[in-house]
Amino acid sequence: MQTLASRPSLRASARVAPRRAPRVAVVTKAALDPQIVISGSTAAFLAIGRFVFLGYQRREANFDSTVGPKTTGATYFDDLQKNSTIFATNDPAGFNIIDVAGWGALGHAVGFAVLAINSLQGANL
Questions:
Q1: Which of 15, 58, 32, 38 is closest to 104 using CA atoms?
Q2: pLDDT digits (tens, 9 = 90+) for 13-62
Q3: CA dist 77 → 6, 43, 73, 84, 86 (Å)
Q4: H or E element at residue 51
Q5: DSSP letter at 5?
Q6: Is the pTM of this model over 0.90?
Q7: Are 7 and 85 in contact (CB under 8 A)?
Q8: What pLDDT digit, counting tens, does each position of 63-89 carry?
Q9: H/E element, 117
């Protein structure tokens, strides 16, 4: 009598699946680093605002204050600026917190626009 192990089987021979290659971790990297883009564009706009456009900005502001209508010689806004320490600065050219906020906001906006345009590369619209 044949043992169970030595009997011929009617099943097809078992196939051995080929070994898969080990998985490799795929790292997705953005084309531009957002921190570098935002910081760089903000720094560039602050430098442009301070060293390029500040003289033009101040000249236009002085022109508007001398040409505008005044009934008593001083406007309410002029009186507010005389006593305000918010606009005081140690910068020799007078670059104050309002200038920093304005030029910094423009730098951020341009930086986000650069990132948005860069993310559209390869997109099917």
A1: 38
A2: 666 677 887 888 776 666 788 999 999 999 999 999 999 988 887 776 66
A3: 106, 31, 12, 11, 14
A4: helix 34-51
A5: G
A6: no
A7: no
A8: 655 655 556 666 666 666 665 566 677
A9: helix 97-119
